[in-house]
Amino acid sequence: GPVIASLLKQEKFKDVVAFKADYDAEKELRKELKVASQSTLVVFKGKSEVARAAGITAPEAIDELLSKGI
Hints:
Layout: H1 2-7, H2 27-32, E1 40-45, E2 48-54, H3 59-67
Antiparallel strand pairs: 1-2
């Protein structure tokens, strides 16, 4: 969403790659990542999951979550 797009413009996130998946259409991906609800953010560092949250909207909370991947 717009909050993530805005955060990714910051220098500290210059090497972060973001992917957005359609919750309803991407059933296999949802199953593979064990996503139980819409608006779930999953953060990876390399191939390892390092953070996950559902339903967060505050820019500060999203920043903190994304920072775990850098």
